[in-house]
Amino acid sequence: MSPERKVRILIAKPGLDGHDRGAKIIARGFRDAGFEVIYTGLHQTPEQIVAAAIQEDVDAVGLSILSGAHGYIFPEVIQLLKEKGAEDILVFGGGIIPEEDIQQLYEVGVKTIFLPGETIQKAVEWVKKNVRPRG
Amino acid sequence: MFKEEKLKKVQEEKKKWIEDLSKILCETPERLSRFTTVSDLEIKGLYTPEDTQDTDYSRDIGFPGIYPFTRGIQSSMYRGRLWTMRMFSGLGGPEETNRRFHYLLDHGETGLSIAFHYPTLMGYDSDSPMSRGEIGKCGVAIDTLKDMEILFEGIPLDKVTTSMTINPPASILLAMYIVVAEKQGVGKKEIGGTIQNDMLKEFIAQKTFMLPPKPSIRIIVDTIEYCTKEVPRWNTISISGYHIREAGATAVQELAFTLADGIAYVEAAMGRGLNVDDFAPRLSFFFDSHIDFFEEIAKFRAARRMWSKIMRERFMAKNPRSWMLRFHTQTAGCSLTAQQPYNNVVRTAYEALAAVLGGTQSLHTNSLDETYAIPTEEAVTIALQTQQILAEETGVANTIDPLAGSYFVEALTHQMEEQAWEYIRKIDEMGGMVAAVERGYPQAEIADSAYKYQRQIDSGEKVLVGVNKYATDRSPITIWRMKSEIEERQLRRLREVKQMRNNEKVKELLHRIRMVSNNGENLMPHIIDAVREYATVQEICDVWRDVFGRYSDPGYF
Lengths: 135, 557
Known about the structure:
The complex is a heterodimer.
Chain A: E1 8-12, H1 21-32, E2 36-39, H2 46-55, E3 60-65, H3 70-83, E4 90-95, H4 99-107, E5 113-114, H5 120-130
Parallel strand pairs in A: 1-2, 1-3, 3-4, 4-5
Helix pairs in contact in A: 1-5, 2-3
Chain B: H1 2-27, H2 57-61, H3 77-80, E1 84-89, H4 94-106, E2 111-115, H5 118-122, H6 145-151, E3 162-165, H7 170-183, E4 193-195, H8 200-206, H9 213-230, E5 234-235, E6 237-240, H10 242-246, H11 251-271, H12 276-279, E7 283-289, H13 293-314, H14 320-323, E8 327-331, H15 343-357, E9 362-364, H16 377-392, H17 407-430, H18 433-438, H19 441-459, H20 484-500, H21 503-519, H22 524-532, H23 537-548
Parallel strand pairs in B: 1-2, 1-9, 2-3, 3-4, 4-5, 6-7, 7-8, 8-9
Helix pairs in contact in B: 4-6, 7-22, 11-13, 11-17, 13-15, 13-17, 15-16, 21-22, 21-23
């Protein structure tokens, strides 16, 4: 039996929003938890994020958004992943997202949203439970 | 001699106190093994004259309005004039923001402060693909002079001062402001206000960057040089610790990195051949007021003392105004919680009190709903009235620097100063802040502090009421939502402006900006000419991106 490879996660900062404190903390927290983490850096378009996800062969993409642009960014990233035949890459997110918008994001395929006040540990546990290395 | 005898007596009495205390602690130990500030600075249980024995009143504390300004920069402080109540505002399009400005001025606000939406902050127009989903969300959309004219309708620019939180395109927005004033019949020499214009802290923390560090600083120095001669009441730069702190820095890091940025700008302007006393009086600062009350007050006091020494001893400034650190304060956005938003009113009030006891010149108080969105009118009213209660009910503005002489506050002020000098020495050794930023030094220090703090929150070592302790159900609040027609209106107006203006002229003026960008002349007069003909923010920034290249995030984590 070959050992399962490590979970690979892309943490991405879409749009023009520069608030990267949360993205960097979660990237480091995931790395410390033993996942392989790639961080895109700031100001990425949905196209750039999807290209990075495919090129890096990740199992999940975590988007951090604090600018209010979540209603555009999440559906766009999920749509582009579909178009590239990579819909098995899970998409989750975190940031400042009003609770009444969350249901809509789940409907387009976002797996979970971490809101302010969540612990690193809780996000790590969610990944361990929900993200598997893709075939 | 007398002083030494007194100190000896204090030491003896302290010994006795410690003996008594040890007995008590055997039975009931202290609540915590370490008592620390929010920045994790360890605090002792008691401070006595022993902790300030090296403090010399005249040398280290002195009098307000007199070097080293520890007690404040004006000799009468708030007894002469209260701090400026300046609420950071921008929402949707210029129409909505103009209404908010009028509302705030009608309710006792004393200065304006513009929050721009992300595309403007980053040098894009509303019709750029980069602006998708962002129009009017985090601030006001400004693409051309037309928007700026609407923004200031009915607001006389000779009667109000305006602060603009804008960085890579700061020169462009200042140029628009100058032209709006000109159209009101108000000359450049009469207008007053501030552009943030501090790119170093953008690379370090806030991350609205566009060009690499060196050309960014060249454009900043152009604005300093131009305003020194032409717009003498304008604060050419607001050297900002706020964003450094919000990105996760400790109070000492905020203090040190901000002053190190200030040193870099002074060096750059002097490198252009400017006389330090001509431009230094118009440098201003901007700090965070976080939740740890005494740490913040000590930070503000240390900042004033340090900057005066830097200006006088390092840069040999002669004019006392060059030695003064004037600063704006914003209460800490990052201390607020999405859970139990009403608690944010309380946090903000304590933070505002610290800013006032620290001697701020102007203050923005955050609204309770700002962890979610731009504040509603109701929320912003509470935030503004928090300042008004502080100013006119609590009595804290009656006397100057009331905490001076507190053994604790003076010792903490001294301790923070010493630790900040240590950082500044380290940055000097790296070749200054530009070199330090290029190698990612402050960025890495901040990321480490942010991660450490999050771990302390996660473990419960640091408490956030309503989040990791005493958590209850979230109390829902109504938040501000942008109407979709605002986006359509903004795009339509931009299209119309581009059709109506003299496009040949705009092309020629943009070409001139390209030439001047290359030949090193001062850009400001040319930017003013271009915006007067309705050149857009992005058109000018595109020229710069083309000439100077782009800065992209190295993505440290």
